[in-house]
């Protein structure tokens, strides 16, 4: 089996408002193609932070899994999920369940965990009629563009994620921790610097403090790496926020973010974060069969509202423990 010259992989289409796109002739065996060109494709991701590969005809989960594995090895299992996903086995998942008409703003996957994927892989089995792009933004550029006083505070204090688990909104205990066993959940929390508290109704509330700025493990450059805006109450649509506050109370939201010292983050700050993200957003509409690779530490990603059928599969790969990514809270409590 032969393929075109690896030099062709360097000739990606690049535009300021879009991630680079590599077009290939449909190979008879996409996984074999991915194995042959793994180093060249990964070099493009290292250079650009993200890469769309178009032409692989990734139309079924088994083919997607084989290509993902060829490019990045065995995927990691997701823990601490904030919303449900369908599992296809072996670390292959559906995209996060989220209302079609609501955006998922820019974020870095599992940036609130201690063990984070350094690479995200996406494959489009069915493209939406309108919208639905998995857009990207360079975290180094976002950090430089944000107000210095704001980033200095977050860099000094970190950011705090609070979660209240229930059976109605967000991921359940089993979906987030892989179990409902209290002792197993508690052991996980202790091992991952997560404060936890069981409420009188049997529900779980957690707090974890993480760094907002980290150095890229390969380049050493500083990146704005967090989910401060995405998981904050002020990013929710007003009617959704109002419903959740009425239903669960201001301190019982399924998830929310705060400054590292526990102070609330104002609506104006969240607006600034999302505005800077939008200024640096690059988007390429999905086409069925597309592959997207994202350096999860250097590059944030989002999901835009859409209409029609949209089926995107996801894998997380190459987990890393970031030396500056997980400040230890002063103590954990039961």
Automatic annotation (TrEMBL):
Gene3D superfamilies: Clavaminate synthase-like. Residues 1-24 are annotated as: Disordered. Its EC number is 1.14.11.-. Residues 28-315 form the TauD/TfdA-like domain. The keyword Iron applies. This is TauD/TfdA family dioxygenase. GO terms for molecular function: dioxygenase activity. It is an enzyme of class 1 (oxidoreductase). Its cofactor is Fe(2+). The keyword Iron applies. Keywords: Antibiotic biosynthesis, Dioxygenase, Iron, Oxidoreductase. InterPro entries: AlphaKG_dependent_hydroxylases (IPR050411), TauD-like_sf (IPR042098), TauD/TfdA-like (IPR003819).
């Amino acid at each position: 089996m032969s393929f075109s010259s690896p030099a062709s992989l360097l000739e990606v289409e690049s535009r300021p408002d879009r991630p680079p796109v590599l077009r290939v002739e449909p190979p008879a065996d996409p996984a074999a193609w991915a194995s042959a060109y793994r180093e060249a494709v990964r070099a493009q991701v290292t250079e650009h932070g993200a890469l769309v590969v178009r032409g692989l005809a990734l139309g079924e989960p088994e083919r997607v899994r084989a290509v993902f594995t060829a490019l990045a090895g065995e995927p990691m299992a997701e823990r601490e999920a904030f919303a449900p996903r369908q599992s296809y086995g072996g670390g292959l998942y559906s995209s996060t369940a989220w209302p079609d008409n609501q955006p998922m703003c820019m974020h870095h996957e599992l940036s609130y965990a201690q063990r984070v994927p350094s690479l995200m892989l996406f494959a489009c089995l069915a493209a939406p009629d309108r919208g639905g792009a998995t857009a990207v933004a360079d975290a180094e550029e976002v950090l430089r563009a944000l107000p210095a006083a704001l980033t200095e505070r977050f860099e000094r204090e970190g950011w705090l994620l609070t979660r209240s688990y229930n059976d109605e909104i967000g991921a359940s205990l089993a979906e987030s921790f892989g179990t409902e066993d209290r002792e197993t959940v508690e052991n996980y929390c202790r091992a991952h610097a997560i404060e936890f508290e069981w409420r009188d109704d049997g529900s779980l509330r957690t707090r974890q403090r993480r760094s907002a700025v980290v150095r890229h493990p390969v380049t050493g450059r500083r990146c704005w790496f967090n989910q401060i805006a995405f998981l904050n109450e002020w990013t929710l649509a007003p009617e959704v926020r109002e419903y959740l506050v009425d239903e669960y109370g201001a301190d019982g939201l399924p998830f929310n973010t705060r400054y590292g010292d526990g102070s609330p983050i104002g609506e104006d700050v969240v607006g600034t974060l999302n505005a800077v993200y939008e200024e640096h957003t690059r988007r390429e509409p999905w086409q069925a069969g597309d592959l997207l690779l994202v350096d999860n530490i250097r590059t944030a990603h989002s999901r835009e509202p859409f209409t029609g059928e949209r089926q995107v599969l996801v894998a997380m790969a190459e987990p890393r423990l970031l030396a500056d990514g997980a400040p230890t809270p002063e103590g954990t409590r039961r």
